[in-house]
Amino acid sequence: MNTAAENETLSAYPPLAQVRQTLRVKWYRSPISHDRLRELSTRTDSQGWIQAGGHVAIFLITGTLSVTFWVLEAWWLFAFTLWCHGFCATFFKGTAAHELGHGTVFNTKWLNRVFLYVVCLISWWDPFDYSTSHTYHHRYTTYPRADRENLLPIQPSLHPWLLLQLFTLNLFVKPGRNFSKGGFFWTIYLTLRTALNLPHAHVDIPSQEWIKVLREDQPLAFRQSILFSRTLLLLHGFIALLAIATGWWVLPLVLTIPSYIANCGSYFVGITQHCGLQENVSDFRKNTRSIRINPVLEFFYWHMNWHIEHHMYAGVPCYNLKKLATEISEDMPVPRTLLGAWREMRKTWRIQQGDPHYQFDTPLPDTAQLTVMHTEAPIAQSIGDLAPKGWRVSN
Fold first, then answer.
1. What is the C-alpha separation between 105 and 202, in angstroms, rounded?
2. Quick one: pLDDT at residue 387?
3. Could you tell me the CA-to-CA distances from 272 to 137, 259, 265 in Å, in that order?
4. Planar angle of CA 203, 207, 211, nearest 5 degrees
5. Beta-sheet pairing, 336-337 with 291-292
6. C-beta separation of 32 from 289 below 8 A
7. Angle CA(13)–CA(307)–CA(36) in degrees, nearest 5?
């Protein structure tokens, strides 16, 4: 729950249209040759099929196995495969949808859009609100005047009630600093409000205040969100009616709520991106964190563990980020392990309880450049096809 001071701070920010005109961030980007950057920025359909097609294929396999064991009444195997199905699906929202939203996965643009809408329909993820929010996030990373997608400080919570839901079924987690929509019930509630174009509620919650501001700034994207929310409700309403009519109650489990089952993986890796780091700095090495994880988790996470690299050069497809990390490694902080990142975040959070202004200052290697440099080259500043149409018109 937010304090009165927090609510006052949220309402004190100037309109985003004004911020776009006044805030010009000259980002530091690690040196890399133009030719090598262009090579790493090349999108290929074959690699897109491996990443996006592979992820969806695993989703279909685990879903088929879940239905099969449900039919056979092999309940332990059903529970196990359904958990695996959910673990796979939870990386659709905010992970698969993120990279597909950038439009950098496939070279063929319509394939990016088809896969984007598929994963968003399964995971109840609004790609239109997100395209607006994430454009601001990349242009103004952790400058809270224009980026409240990750409003710091973020609590790296390990509360038992939260963990219970993250390892089983996430029904009741409320949207806040850590979650844009929250659990399944909150998602339905907020989707219904959007579909009916009702006045925005719960603006005392940071993530919901941010959505309200974004929709005022980009009304075209908001109209698309309304249509998408109606489509979501119609689709999943049909699945529910089909389940009632046929007695196949397994259908909503594998098609409607899988991205709210076993959310633990996406939570533990996703929260490491910016938690505990610095605001209002023009160096991604100070406001973003890269981590090393095993290849299986890296695949499901769409290689976003290389998160500093992603922010520096957002036009580079996710499957080339590890190569980019190797290319600029001498100028970068040592990637944390997942456990190391969590220890760092938890320690930072404990310090912030006594000193709210404390932020972790990521140490840089001796080989790193300390002089702030930036490049105006379009390929370096590219964020792919992320920006909504209204943004392009207004800028």
1. 35
2. 83
3. 16, 20, 12
4. 75
5. parallel
6. no
7. 115
Query: How confident is the model at residue 115, as a pLDDT?
Result: 98
Listed as own residue / partner, the contacts of 161-170 with beta carbons closer than 8 Å and 24 or more positions apart are: 163/264, 165/263, 166/262, 166/263, 166/264, 166/267, 167/262, 167/264, 168/261, 168/262, 169/257, 169/260, 169/261, 170/260, 170/261, 170/263
The total domain count for the chain is 1
- What's phi and psi for 368, nearest 5 deg? -75, 145
Give the side-chain half-sphere CA count within 13 A for 112: 19
Cβ atoms of 328 and 291 within 8 Å: the answer is no
List the chain residues with pLDDT less than 70: 1-11, 177-181, 203, 370-376, 392-395
Rg (CA), the chain: 21
Q: Assess contact for 52 and 106: CB atoms under 8 A.
A: yes
C-beta separation of 215 from 390 below 8 A: no
Owning domain of residue 167: 4-394
Rounded Cα–Cα distance for residues 195 and 257 (Å) = 19
Cut 0.85: pTM above it: yes
Q: Give residue 66's pLDDT.
A: 98
Whole-number Å distance between alpha carbons of 103 and 326? 23
